[in-house]
Every structure is written in structure tokens, then in C-alpha cells.
Amino acid sequence: MNSQPKPNCLLAWMSLVLTALLWGGCSDSSKTAGDAAKSDAAPRAYTIGMSQCNLGEPWRVQMNEDIKNAAAKHSNLKVIFKDAQNDTLKQRAHVEEFVSSKVDLLIISPKEAQPLTEPVARAMEAGIPVIVLDRRLLGDKYTCFIGADNKKIGKAAGEWIVKTLGGQGNIVELMGLQTSTPGQDRHSGFLEGIAGSNLKIIFSADMKWLEPDARKEMESALSRFDKIDLVYAHNDPGAHGAYLAAKAAGRTGIKFVGIDALPQEGVAYVSQGILDATFQYPTGGAEAIETALKVLHGETVPKEIVLGTRLFDKANVAQGGQELN
Amino acid sequence: MNESSPIQTRNRFVQFGSSPAGRAFLALLLMLLVGTLFNADGAFFKIGTHRDALRQASVYGILACGSTLVIITAGIDLAVGSVLALVAVCCSMMAIHWGWSGWLVVPVCLLVGCASGGLAGVVTARLRVQPFIATLALMVLARGAAKYASGGMKVSTAVKNASGGYDYVDVPALFRLVDTRILGGNLSVVTVIFLICLALAWLALSKHSWGRHLYAIGGNEEAARLSGVPVVWAKTLAYVASGMLSAVAGICQAAQEQQGDPEAGVGYELMAIAMVVIGGTSLMGGRGGMGLTLLGVLTIGYLDKILSINAVPEAGRLMLTGIIIVTAVLTQQRKRT
Amino acid sequence: MTAARPIPPSATPPLVRLTGITKRFGPVTVLHNVQLEIAPGEVHVLAGENGAGKSTLIKILAGIHTDFEGRIEYGGREARPRSPLEAGALGVAVIHQELSLIGPMSVADNIFLGRMPTRNGFVCDARQHEEARHWVRQLGLELDVRRPVEHFPIAVQQLIEIAKALSQNARVLVMDEPTSALNATEVETLFGLIRSLKARGCGIVYITHKMEEIGRIADRITVLRDGEWVGTAPAQDLSSARFIQWMVGRELGQQFPRRAPQPGAERLRLENVSVYPEGIAARPAAANISLAVRAGEILGIGGLQGSGASQLLLGLFGAYGRATRGRVLLDGQVMEFTTPRAAINAGLVLLTNDRKATGLVLSLSIIANATLAGLRELTRAGWRNPTAERAAAERTTGQVKLRAASLDLEVGALSGGNQQKVAIAKWLQTRPKVLLLDEPTRGIDVGAKREIYQLMDEWTAQGMAIVLITSEMPELITLSDRIVVMHRGELTATFTRAQATPETILAAAMGHTTASTITKAS
Q1: Which residue of A258, C7, C119, C263 is surrounded by the most CB atoms within 10 Å?
Q2: To probe the interface with B, which of C226, C320, C341, C361 has the most B CB atoms within 10 Å?
Q3: Range of A209's domain?
Q4: Is the domain of A255 the same as that of A238?
């Protein structure tokens, strides 16, 4: 082969280093769960495979965290985590690896429905029960789906806003992405929630789920409108960015509402008085382990579990929020 | 025969209009004109809008300064966005979690940036790997390092305590200082930082022999080497400078977000390159300058702002931005006389 | 200005006749009422100093410039080609100075570029190869047409370019300085080819700066000066004095300065120097070279292409890093240059043989180029001083008699001769002790050449030592005080000026080492 050796060599090095780093991260997390299992010789040890589509988002990091914490409470559970890094084919390979290593149960948070439906069906055929988290698959070849309903959450946010503002006021909506399903659902649910009130959406823009972009869009809204009563952002970083923009502009009397309520983001912002409310988009991690145990013990579980949301506002944040259903 | 006489006989205005600076200036004027036409109920005429437009463009602008230095050598730096994220994470950990003073945080951050840039510089200049590949590798590496250091989570003022809950700490003074305004609230400090970076980079590029060396390397590396220009050293320094400016941008980003986001700065390198190229600096190297980059930064910054105040939906924004970048670069590429 | 005289009629009707050609770029007239005709079977030399308008005229003929005044007749019928493709269809092909072949593509692909034989939109490789082989054989070449063009030496590439022109059925071939990159044997091959093209009835427009070539192959000569037609004459009727007068508009006394060298102390001495551009393990480009140059002396190095002389100078200059072995003494001090910078600082500089590729930064101004090598002494703590730079550039470009409207012009906009002067000015700025010149007059006009010869004479008078590589025999023999000859990396002969004749030098350059001519420097 007559190729240039240097770049290839370098890339090889880089990928080696990266693999090492990632592997370090993975083995770390499985070890804690595994050690717990060993330390306490329990009735029957189970190995659970967890295929995460992407650990680039804090919310998904939290999902893994929740699974890990829930599993740590059961000494007979060992969870192996795999991160597909937002690559569908990689996730498919991970599922196949789990099947061939004969895990007792598979939890998957799929990146996409179509390409992952078949590998999951094959896992089922191989006798491995599958719990699907957050995003759905096609058909019904899985054991149980656990997920939250963005529309419901958007509606809850809308209703809370109507109540808080007394049914009147100017609202800025910072949307995640108009072209994404969560963004569309959080938007349409919200519209449903405020239907019939006198609330007006005076400005709405995409902030691509990103804080700097939310701040940018909020600055535009601030320069256009002198009276803004509330900002409804499709995620907490968005609401936080809007808050920073308003604060920098010296504008007061604006309320900020976000969604997701991750402990270190939304909930923290509410406790710090930055946001007025945030609505949890639950990861379902704890529920997944709970359901997994039921499945492994031979109990029947519902085909679909829709998670409720929790409201965190200034009044209840210290008590851990309030369950909404 | 005298090759220069057509230029001499033309009047100055036309001459300026056909120079890269003139075209970039024209593009900016056109952009401002678009702003006055689509002024979003007068929002474009408010001073705050311009302050915000400048603030938003500042982080990109700081990156663009570094990219200009590298692009003049006919290189490219794809790592600026990732280095920004790495520094934002490091900066937030030091300033928020460890409570270090700004006097310590800033130098350490700059050092991190210089080290990253130095790595890219040595690999390209010394080991002669193509800059595209070398900085692509650094882009991935720095992003990985940012995620590793932060554990994949944003490093914010919510600090995890021993019991698994969260303690809330104050936003550090450094962040407050950077994310504030002066001149009666009419100028953001990040914009001042950008202008200082621009001025320093301009001084280095236009007034220092190093800058001349960068132009010579970009114009004809072999001729420069055979003229005694310290090619490896000058080129490495360009990447170091780009890394250091990325670090400055990273500090500004962290201060404005009040946290270190390992996912920050995705795609910023392309924005910075677009600003440099729209200004009229050639990707082939050897031609261009900091003044041109300022014009490019302002043009894209205002484009962004105008689209934002008019609440143009994302899909439309992407298409419009693409069209305008191509148009601007096409006018820049018109044959020079 | 000479009044336009009618062209002496040629025996056969011309292939192409251009009359009253005027071309303006904006307000500047670059060609004014120029005429040219090319008869079948003749070599028509188009001569003139750089910037005289030769290239513009060729570009009009080739359909590159389309807005001009005047008349072009192809085979007696008026036509105005609007593109090189149309000119090609009219039978005109241009072989440019910078070859227009695409290096990584095969010979066959290059020959049929843009008009490959296709079937249903797919290239018929077999047919294309066969036809390409046919055209290449016409030129007496035997080569694999599937190999990439860049694998062949420049001389062969040029022949491939000619094959391409022939395959397009060209009747008129324009050759723009075709020998500038060829060695002596390759030039002979080319001239042989030109003779056979003449015999087939092709007309050839030949642009060159080399007097020797004009004398050998020209049938008729047309001279342009400052965009005006000066005259056309059969070659045998045009004395060389008159020819030079036509070119420069004045009588040139002597092309070469009469040198009266007064060699001083030894400036540069090489003892068993070998240069390994491909690495120490590979064959050296120059092996065990020993020679010495004194202050005030010009040492010429003769040799054909591949002699290793250029690599020797590059290695000496530190351009190959640590790839040089042996002892180098500068003013009696043992030196080891591993970077050009070190050599420059010590007072040893090299004018490379390709100003565009390795000599100048074309995108920078004259000032920036002229001060590039000596920038450090014009700065304080690295900070530049534009006034000092301008003054320095004015001084050095003044010394080389650079003619430019402004020193802020980009070097790329200058003519070849002026570019070379800028490259030389760059080295003057560093006040060198030893000047290594590799083809200092390549591709520049007679007037500029003469000025450079004068300068070399002046510099040596001031105590500089010069090592000169040149492929032009008259230059080598007249300018050099001593001549060494290299063949395939080794020194084969040393001559004094009195001993040297073109024959003895050529013999040594081709590897004949006869005892009488060898006096190895020790």
C-alpha cells in the first residue's frame, strides 16, 4: 500500500486514546454495580444490558445514573452500560453483542425506531426480555415500554402558567426545535394547556435546545417587546439562557419556566431562584430497574408505562417537588 | 509595459470598491441596509440590539481572530470549538467548584489553550501532517477531554455534595466581570475582550515580523523557508495563538453561560472560518488580514441578529445563511484586476 | 518609433495572417497595429523583451483574448476565435511555458482531455490508448500511455503536449520558450522534431530569449517592442546587431561585461562535500565535491540536467537540513548549515533556479519580498518599521535597477525580469559574502540579462564571491573566471576561462573525463 503513513498513524493514536478514555468511563460504572453484587452473595445474580443511544446529553447521562443508582440497591443486579454515541448502527451492534453474551434482560433507549426494531425482536426471540426506554420502537416485539409524554408535560406547564399569571399576559416561547418531535409535542401540549385563556405568545423562536442560542433569541425578544410576563422554554438550559439575557438587560418581573428538571440543572435553578418552575421529564431509569426485577421474577408487567411528571416550583422544591398526573 | 497603470488611473472610490476590504465593507453595508428594511417593528434601531449583536458575535469573533492567523499560513484550525469547550469546562471547574481566584484561573485556561494549539502546531508544522487532519484529530481529542473532565455533565453552580444532593454556590466574580456591561450598559465586556484580541492579533499580523512571516509562509512556504523564514516556529506559533484565543473564547463562553458545557462550541469552528472567508482572507493563504476579519465578523453577526429579531424559523435561517455565505464569498472571489 | 514596413512576402500563402491587431487593457494599449503571418513549413521566431506584447499576441491567436481590433485570417478566411477550443478547430495549438498537463492523469487521458472517444457516454479506454500511442509514436517516443504524466521528465511532458496538439490536427503550433527546462540532448530531440513538423507543412511560432536557438532554427523573425511591431525579416538577412537593436531600440555595446577579476582571499571552500536530498541511505545528488571560490571571483558550474549542481548549492545552503556531509569553510571557518537561515546569517545566500516556485512570494508586495530575508535587521524586538523597510527596498531594488510603478505592487504582477530583480534585491539586503546563483537569467529578456551580468561584475568587484550555475553556454564561458563541470553528481573537470570551450565543457558534462582537462581542486 502506498498511503501516507503519518495522518493514518495519528488517527489510529487518537482513536486508541479515545477508546481508552471511553472504556475507562464504561468499566468504571459497571464495576460499582458489579462489586455490589459480589460483596453480598444473593439468591440469583442477574446481568442486565443497558444500551444508551447517546451520552452527549446530560439528560441521558442522568438516565444511566438513575439506572445505576436503582440497581445498586439490589445486590444481585449487575448492569453493563454501552453508549452508541448517537450512531444507530453502533447501537444495533451493541444490542447484538448483548444477545450473544446472553444477558438476562436488555434495557434499550433507542436512537431510532426503524433500524433498531428488528435487532430488538431478535433479542426477544432469543428469550431475552427487553425494556424500551424513552423512544418507541415499531410493532410490539418488546416486553415493556417506559416513557414520558411530552404533550402531557407541555399541557401541565400551560395550565400552571395560566394559573400563575391569572390567565393574562405576554409570553415568549423558546422552542427546542420545531422540526423535532419533543419540540412539537411540548409546543402543542402547551397550546392545549393555555387554550381559553387570554395569554398571548408574542414571540417564539427555535433555540436548538442550546443555552447560548436561547440567550440570543431572548435578547431579540427583549429588544422588540417592552412587556414580557413569562418565558416558556422547552428545556431548562433554554430558560436559564433567557434568564441571563433578561438579567443582563436589567429587565425584572419576568417569570421563567423550563422543562426537564434534572437535579443539577432545572431543580438547581429553581432552588437558586433563577427559574420559577420546571417540569420533570423523567428518565424512567428507576422505573426500568423496578420493572426489570418484576420481569426477571416472572411477574407480569404492563406493555406500556407512561410516566407522570413532577412540578418543581419555589414552594415545593425543597420538599422534592410535587407529583402531577 | 507598465502593469500598474490601470489601477493608478482609476479613481480612489472604484479602487476601494474592487479591493477585498471594499467588498467586505460593501457586504456589511448591505447587511445593515437589510436590517433597516426588516427592522422588526423598530427593534433594529434600538441601541440594545446592536450591543447584543456585537456581544453574540464576540465569541465567534475571538475564534475568527485565531483562525485568521492560521488561514493566512494556508492552514486551517478545526479544533477551536472543541478547545473552547475544554477550556469552558476547566474554567468552570476551577472558578466554581474549586473556588480559585480569577488571577489563577485565567492564566491556567490560557495555558490549556496554548498547549492544545501547540499540539496542533507541532503535528502540522514539525511532523508535516495536513492541518485539516491534525486539527480534526485535535477537535475530537479536545471534545473527548472536555467530556472526560466534566463527566459529560455541565459544570454549573450546582455542586454535587457527598450525600448525592446538590449545593448551590455563587457565580464566581470572574464570570460576573466578563458577563457585564460598561458605558452605561451600552457595551458588553465580551465585546471589549473581542476587540482587544482583534487589536493584538492585528498588531502581531501587521506590525510584527512574525505576521510578515505568516503571510510569506501562506504565499509560498518553500520560498519563505529558502529566504530564512523560521517556518516551523512561525507556523507552530500561529496554532498556539489560535489555541490561546480559543481559550479566551472559552472563558467568555463559560462566563456567559455561567457554567462549563462540554457540548459547547459545536460548529463554531465553521462559523469562525466563514467569518474569515467572508471578510476576504483567502483559504489558499498569503492574503487577508485582521481588518477584513472584523468586517466578516460584523456581517455574519448582524445577519444572525436580523434573522433572530425577525423570528425567522430555524429551517429558513439555515437556508438564508447558506445562501448569503455563498453570495458573499462569490463577490469576494471576483477576479482581481 | 519605426514605421510599419510591409511584411516581405513569403513564397506560399500563409496559414495564418494577423493584421492591424490592437489590444487594450482598460486605458493601457498593450498591442498597437501589430502584424504577423505564419507560412507553412517555417519556424517563425517571435522575439521581444519581456512585456513587449508577445504573450498577448499569442493569446489573441489562441482565442484567449477575444476583444481586440484587427483581422485574423486562417487559411485566407477571416475568423475570430472566441475560445481556445475554436482556435484549436481552426488549427492553432499553443504549448505554453507552464505546461497545461494534469500530472496525476495518464498520458492518454491528457492527450484526449475534454474530447475523449466515448461510447454511450463511457470513455473507450482501448481506443483512446491506441490513438494516444499513435500520436506519441509520431514524435518518435516509445512510452506507456497509461502511466501518469507526472512520472515523466519535463522534456517528455513537453513532447506529450506537442502530441496533444498534433492529435487536434494543428497546423500552427505556438511554442512559448519550449527549451527553458530542457537539457542539451533534449533540446536536440526537440529541434529534430521541429524539423519534421516543418517537413509536414506545419507552421511554428517560436518564442525564445536564447540567441543561440534563434540562430539555429529561425526561418523568419518578427520583433515586437512595447506593443508595437518593429519588423519582420528572414533570419539569414537579420544580423545579430540589428536584431538586438530591434529588440531594445538601441545599440547594445556588448552583451557581456568585460571582466577583469582580481581574486582576493578564499571565501568559500568545499572539501569532499556530498549532498543527500533523498536521505543518507539513498544515492547522493552530489558526491565528494571539492572546490574553492575566492573573493571577487565568479566560479561557473557547468553540467547537463541531472548533474546535481542545483542540489549541491541547495545542500550547501542548508535547504535539505542535515543531508550534507563533508567540510564547508566560509572565510576559513568551518561551517555547518542545517537551515537556510543559518547560511543567510553567515553570509551565504542562494538565488534558486525557479523564482516562482522557490524564490518569491508572489502574493506579497515588492517591499515585503525584498525585505523578507533581511527583515530582522529592519525590526526592533520583532516589531516592523515600515519606513525602514521601504528605504531598504528602495535601496536594493535601485541597485538592481528594478522598474516598477510602485514598490507596493504584488510581485506576481511584474514581468519575469523584474521578478528576478526582486529576488536578487532580497539577497542584497542581507549583504552576502558568497552569492550562489542558480540560473539567474532563466526566462528573462536580453536587456534584463545584461543588467544582471553588469551587477554580477560590480558585486565581485566589491569582494563578493559568486558561484554561478547556468545552462546557457555563452553565459557560462564569458562570465565565469573559472569553470567546474559536474556529471551525475561528480566533478569531472575544472577549467580556467582560457581553457574552456563549449566543446570541452560539453564533453565533460557528458561524463568524458580526459586527463588533460582534469585538475581537481584539492
Answers
A1: A258
A2: C361
A3: 150-280+313-323
A4: yes
A and C in touch (3+ CB pairs within 8 angstroms): no
Length in residues, chain B: 337
Which residues pair with residue A77 across a beta bridge? A46
Q: Same domain for A218 and A163? A: yes
For chain C, the distance separating the N- and C-terminal CA atoms, rounded to the nearest angstrom, is: 56
Alpha carbon distance A159, C448 (integer Å):
88
Cβ-based neighbour number of residue C236 at 10 Å: 10
Task: Record the cell numbers describing residue C260, joined without a space.
Answer: 577583469
* DSSP-assigned letter for residue C517: T
pLDDT in tens, B129-184: 999 999 999 999 999 999 999 887 888 888 877 776 777 888 888 998 888 888 88
Establish if C26 touches chain B: CB-CB under 8 angstroms: yes
Using only C-alpha atoms, what is the Rg of chain B? 21
Nearest to A11 among B48, B137, B311 (CB): B137
Establish if A251 belongs to a structural domain: yes
Q: Is residue B15 domain-resident?
A: no
What is the tens place of the pLDDT at every residue in C123-159?
778 888 888 888 888 777 778 888 888 888 777 888 8
CB contact under 8 A, B253 and A212: yes
Residue A75 lies in a domain: yes
Residue C427 scores a pLDDT above 90: yes
Residue A24 lies in a domain: no
Report how far residue A52's alpha carbon sits from residue A96's, in angstroms, rounded to the nearest whole number. 14
Total count of domains within chain A: 2
Are A104 and A128 contacting, i.e. CB atoms less than 8 angstroms apart?
yes
Per the domain annotation, does B162 fall within a domain? yes
CB burial readout C318-328, b (16+ within 10 A) else e: bbbeebbebeb
**Best CA proximity match to C372, nearest among B275, A84, A301, B209:** B209
How far, in Å, CA of C87 to CA of C79, rounded? 9
How far is Cα A219 from Cα A206, in angstroms, rounded to an integer?
A: 13
Cell numbers at B59, concatenated: 465569541
pLDDT of res. C517? 43
> How far are the Cα atoms of A156, A204, A237, B324 from residue B309, in angstroms, in the given order?
29, 10, 21, 18
Chains that touch B (3 or more CB pairs under 8 A): A, C
Q: How many domains does chain B have?
A: 1
Give a yes or no: residue A174 inside a domain: yes
Q: pTM value?
A: 0.77
Among all residues of chain A, which has the CA nearest to that of B178? Answer: A248
The whole-chain average pLDDT of chain B stands at 88
Residue C505 contacts residue C477 (beta carbons within 8 Å): yes
- What does the pLDDT look like over C205-250, one tens digit per residue? 998 877 778 888 899 999 888 788 988 989 888 887 788 778 766 5
**C292-312: b (≥16 Cβ within 10 Å) or e:** bbbbbbbbbbbbbbebbbbbb
- Taking the C-alpha atoms of residue C115 and residue C119, their distance in angstroms, rounded to an integer, is 12
Are the beta carbons of B129 and A6 separated by less than 8 Å? yes
ipTM, two decimals: 0.85
- Show which subunits contact C, needing at least 3 CB pairs below 8 angstroms: B
Residues A228, A184 share a domain: yes
Domain harbouring A179, CATH code: 3.40.50.2300
Where in the sequence is the domain holding B320, given as residue range(s)? 42-336
Q: Do residue C415 and residue B1 have CB atoms under 8 angstroms apart?
A: yes
CA A41 to chain B, closest CA, distance in angstroms equals 26
Torsion-angle region of B311 (φ positive above 0: left; ψ -120 to 50: alpha; else: beta): left
DSSP for B109-156? HHHHHHHHHHHHHIIIIIT---HHHHHHHHHHHHHHHHHHHHTTS-B-
Give strand pairing partners of A132.
A108, A145
Same domain, A140 and A163: no
Chain B residues inside the 8 Å CB shell of C28 = 1-2, 5-6
